[in-house]
Design a protein that fits this description.
With 443 residues, the chain is an alpha/beta fold. The chain folds into 2 domains: 143 residues, Sandwich (Jelly Rolls); 282 residues, 3-Layer(aba) Sandwich (Aminopeptidase). An 8-stranded mixed beta sheet has the order 2-3-5-4-6-9-7-8, sandwiched between helices. It has a 5-stranded mixed beta sheet with strand order 1-15-14-17-12. Strands 10, 11, 13, 16 and 18 form a 5-stranded antiparallel beta sheet that branches. α3 packs across α9. The longest helix has 20 residues. The protein is elongated and about 80 Å long. Bound molecules: D-tryptophan, calcium ion (CA) and zinc ion (2 copies). One zinc ion binds next to α3. Calcium ion binds next to α9.
Length: 443
C-alpha cells in the first residue's frame, strides 16, 4: 500500500551547518492510523522447525487415509479422523481449539480453529492450510504438507511458551477442494469487527512438492518482502506466486480486505530449465506430478522444501507476532556506492537490504545522508520503505549552500524492518550537480 507521510513531528538537525533548527514539520495525517503496537516482549529469533516432526504428522495423515479408503476428503471418515488428530495435538499443547461445522453436499464439514492464549486480541496474526484431500488420494502434499507445517509451528510456539505482542491464530480448513467452502464459511461467520482484528492471514497450500519451486504470494508487498527476506537469507531464490490467485483459502480473506501472504512449492505446472538451474530438480516435469492423484502419498514430498517452508512459517509467526521488536539498537545498514544525480532530471535511488531482523522498524529510525552537491536547494530527498511507502526527508528550497550531510529521524513504526529500503534523490533545479556519496539506516 503506497502512502506519503511527512516525517511528522521531526526536528531536522543539519549536522554540517549550524542553522537554527528547522521548523518542526506539522505532523502529517497518516494514511494509516499509527496504532501504537502494544509493548512487546523482546523475542529471540524463530526456532528451527524439525522437519522430522513435520514428516511424522504426514505419516499419521497417511495412515489415516490408508485406514479410511485411501483419502481424507470432505464427507469421508478420513477427514474427520484428520481433524481429530490435529485437534488432539493442539489441545495437549495448550491451545484453545474450536471446531466449526457446516454442511456441504449433504455432508458435514469442519474447520479447526486454534488460538494461542495471550497477545493483543485486536491484533491477530493468522496462518492456515486446508486439511481435506481430494477423493482420489491421501493429499499428503496437497495439503497435508501445509497442515503439518503450521501444526509443527504451532507446537513450536507452545514449546517456546511464546508471549508475542500480537495474538496468534491457526486454521485448518475443510472442503477447500470443492471451492474453499470451509474458509469461506469461517470468514463469513466473522463479525466485521472481528475481521478487522485479523492483521494478516498467511496461507500454506502445498509446501513440500517433490520437484519443488519456491513461490511467494505477491498479494501484499510487506508480507511478500517478509518471505523474500527470509529466503534471501538462506540464499534461495524465489518467484512470485500467481498461479493460485483465487484458488485457495487466502482468497476469502483477501476478498474481505484482509492482508494475505503465503508460500507455495508448485503443483501441475512444468518446471522450466531456468527454474531447475536455480532450484535443482527436474526441468520439463511438473513440480508435483501427483497433484490430485492417488500417488500424492507420504513418498510424494521433498524434505528440503518442506523443511525450508516450515522454518519460514515459524519465522513469519515470530516476526509478525512480535510487532515491535527491531534490530538491536545501533544496528547500521549502509550503502557507500556513489550515485550521480542528473541535473534537473529524473530521480535516482540507492538501496540497502535490511535482513536478519524481525518486527517493525522503530519510531525513531535514523537516516544518515551524505550528498555532495553544489546547490542543495535543488534537492528533494525521500526515504522509500520496502512496501513502497514514501517518507519525505527534504523538499527543494531556496538554499544555495553546498552538500547535505544530515541525519534525519523518521517514524517508520508502521513498516516491517526487513526488506529493501531506498534513498530517492531528485535534482529539480537547473545548473548545479552532485551525487549520493553514501547513506545509512541506524536502528
Ligand atoms: N492446492 C491446490 C490449489 C492451488 C493450485 N495452485 C496453487 C497455487 C498456490 C496456492 C494454491 C494453489 C488445490 O487445493 O487444489
Ligand atoms: Ca528446519
Ligand atoms: Zn490445495
Ligand atoms: Zn487440491
Amino acid at each position: 500500500m503506497r502512502r506519503t507521510t511527512l516525517a511528522g513531528g521531526t526536528v531536522v538537525t543539519l549536522a554540517a551547518t549550524l542553522l537554527a533548527p528547522a521548523a518542526l514539520f506539522a505532523p502529517a495525517a497518516q494514511a494509516r492510523p499509527a496504532a501504537a503496537p502494544p509493548a512487546a516482549q523482546a523475542l529471540a529469533a524463530a526456532p528451527d522447525i524439525p522437519v522430522a516432526n513435520v514428516k511424522a504428522h504426514l505419516a499419521k495423515l497417511q495412515s489415516i487415509a490408508t485406514a479410511n479408503g485411501g483419502n481424507r476428503a470432505h464427507g469421508k471418515a478420513g477427514y474427520k479422523a484428520s481433524i481429530d488428530y490435529v485437534k488432539g495435538q493442539l489441545d495437549a499443547a495448550g491451545f484453545t481449539t474450536a471446531l466449526q461445522s457446516y454442511t456441504y453436499g449433504g455432508a458435514t464439514g469442519w474447520n479447526l480453529i486454534a488460538d494461542w492464549p495471550g497477545g493483543d486480541a485486536s491484533h491477530v496474526v493468522m496462518v492456515g492450510a486446508h486439511l481435506d484431500s481430494v477423493t482420489a488420494g491421501p493429499g499428503i502434499n496437497d495439503d497435508g504438507s501445509g497442515s503439518a507445517g503450521i501444526l509443527e509451528a504451532a507446537l513450536a510456539v507452545s514449546r517456546a511458551a511464546l508471549q508475542p505482542a500480537k495474538h496468534l491464530r491457526f486454521g485448518w480448513w475443510g472442503t477447500e477442494e470443492a471451492g474453499m467452502v470451509g474458509s469461506k464459511n469461517y470468514v463469513n461467520s466473522l463479525s466485521s469487527a472481528d475481521r478487522s482484528k485479523i492483521e494478516s492471514y498467511l496461507n500454506f497450500d502445498m509446501i513440500g512438492s517433490p520437484n519443488p519451486g519456491y513461490f511467494v504470494y505477491d498479494d501484499d508487498t510487506a508480507l511478500d518482502q517478509l518471505f523474500q527476506g527470509y529466503f534471501s537469507g538462506l540464499g534461495v531464490a524465489t518467484e512470485p506466486e500467481t498461479e493460485g490467485d483465487g484458488r485457495s483459502d487466502h482468497s476469502p480473506f483477501k476478498n474481505a480486505g484482509i492482508r494475505v501472504g503465503g508460500l507455495f512449492s508448485g503443483a501441475d505446472y512444468i518446471k522450466t530449465a531456468a527454474q531447475a538451474a536455480k532450484w535443482g530438480g527436474t526441468s520439463g516435469q511438473a513440480f508435483d506430478r501427483c497433484y490430485h492423484a492417488s500417488c500424492d502419498t507420504s513418498a510424494n514430498i521433498n524434505d528440503t522444501a518442506l523443511d525450508r517452508m516450515s522454518d519460514a512459517i515459524a519465522y513469519a509467526l515470530w516476526t509478525l507476532g512480535t510487532g515491535t521488536t527491531t534490530p538491536p539498537a545501533g544496528t547500521v545498514f549502509e550503502n557507500t556506492t556513489d550515485v550521480a544525480i542528473p541535473d534537473n532530471g529524473a530521480a535516482v535511488t540507492s538501496s540497502v537490504a535490511v535482513t536478519g531482523v524481525s518486527g517493525n522498524a522503530p519510531a525513531a529510525l535514523k537516516v544518515g545522508v551524505d550528498i555532495k552537491h553544489t546547490w542543495r536547494g535543488d534537492l528533494v530527498i525521500d526515504l522509500v520503505a520496502p512496501d513502497g511507502s514514501t517518507y519525505r526527508l527534504k523538499s527543494s528550497a531556496n538554499d544555495s549552500a553546498p552538500n547535505v550531510l544530515t541525519t534525519y529521524t523518521v517514524n517508520a513504526s508502521a513498516e516491517l524492518a526487513a526488506g529493501t529500503w531506498k534513498l530517492k534523490v531528485q535534482d529539480v533545479g537547473p545548473q548545479d550537480t552532485g551525487y549520493i556519496d553514501s547513506w545509512k539506516l541506524t536502528f
